[in-house]
Amino acid sequence: MNKDLLFDFNVDKAAKMVYITREFNASQSLVWDAFTKAELLDQWGAPAPMRAQTKYMDFKVGGRRFYAMISPDGQERWSVQEFTSITPKTNFKMYNAFADKDENRELPGSEWDYNFSEQNGITRVDITIYNESFERLEKLLEGFKIGFTMTLKNLEELLATLS
Amino acid sequence: MKQDIFQAIADPTRRAILTLLAIQALTPNVMAEKFDMTRQAVSKHIKVLHECDLVRPKQSGREIYYHFNAKKMQEFDNWLAQFRQNWETQFNQLDQLLTTIKTQK
Q1: Torsion sign (Cα): A133, A137, A142, A145
Q2: Residue A140: what pLDDT?
Q3: Contact (CB<8Å) B88/A158
Q4: Pick from B12, B79, B97: which is nearest to A44 by CB?
């Protein structure tokens, strides 16, 4: 965990909103790419030991990303993201829904809004998630109950090999 | 969570009821008085809270007292903490990725 970078996580129970803010030590255009390009998303977009795998991604308004979260034992949980609004480098919105492996969506889903801004080389990402029901969030977690093998210690080791 | 706990907490009256019950167990009649509501309206709210296990009834003589189930609330908070942890893990992974990309350039 990088102690200098802001990480904020809040849930407004009454409004059914989740608010997430995180700063990254990289330029806005690089962070934007990490959130909007499949080959980068797949490298970080699932909490270890899960991994993300995008089947296809068409990043344009009305386009979709169809991807799976894969657990260590090979179980796949598919989701569809539909992009509803894109302002390059600063904002995009999407509608996220669980799906089966044939891309049939389970509605309702959740509405996601991402905002990007840069100051002094630090990029801030603000994410809001609106869920019609909290049970959806519950479902999201189901797949993560495997327990985290990715301890801070592992992380430090990894960072050490990278720097 | 059988009942959507989120729905239960989303209602301001139910939140007020929970706050009250956290201090002391009460009967539906007393709650109705305190909130200036009909007994029927209180019962509806209690039903929702009971279905998601946030409150538990206890018979005491001829009265039923409702108790706040702090453990359930704790479970809910733990669950949220886990959700937060997932994000933290992902973002740390992204930190590494960004570092890797930057050094490659």
Answers
A1: negative
A2: 58
A3: no
A4: B97
